[in-house]
Amino acid sequence: MNLDHLSRALDQIGALVAGVRSDQADEPTPCAAWLSPLRNETASHSTDLG
Fold first, then answer.
1. Model confidence over 3-49: pLDDT tens digits?
2. Which residues of 16-34 are buried (b: 16+ CB within 10 A; e: fewer)?
3. Phi, psi of 24 (to 5 degrees)
4. What is the DSSP string of the chain?
5. Is 29:35 a contact under the CB 8 Å cutoff?
6. Do 49 and 9 touch, CB atoms closer than 8 A?
7. Are 47 and 4 in contact, with CB atoms under 8 Å apart?
8. Are 1 and 42 in contact (CB under 8 A)?
9. Phi and psi for 42 in degrees, rounded to 5?
10. What is the pLDDT of residue 46?
11. pTM over 0.70
12. Which of 46, 47, 50 is nearest to 6 (CA)?
């Protein structure tokens, strides 16, 4: 993964998160099975940059 790809991915994730209203923050997601692995994968790649 290069830095440009990571930057674009983080921009897209940020836009999605910004679209979540405060009253939606505690609602369940239909995608709980992949949400945690996705978060972990994103975090692991961000540590590769430092």
1. 888 888 889 988 988 888 888 878 887 676 666 776 777 767 665 55
2. eeeeeeeeeeeeeeeeeee
3. -95, -10
4. --HHHHHHHHHHHHHHHHT--GGGTTS--TTHHHHHHHHHHHHHHHHHT-
5. yes
6. no
7. no
8. no
9. -60, -45
10. 60
11. no
12. 46
Are 30 and 1 in contact, with CB atoms under 8 Å apart?
no
- What end-to-end distance do the CA atoms of the chain give, in Å? 14
Residue recorded with tokens 């505690």 = 26
Amino acid making up residue 13: I
Instruction: Tell which residue, 18, 21, 12, 22, has the closest CA to residue 42.
Output: 12
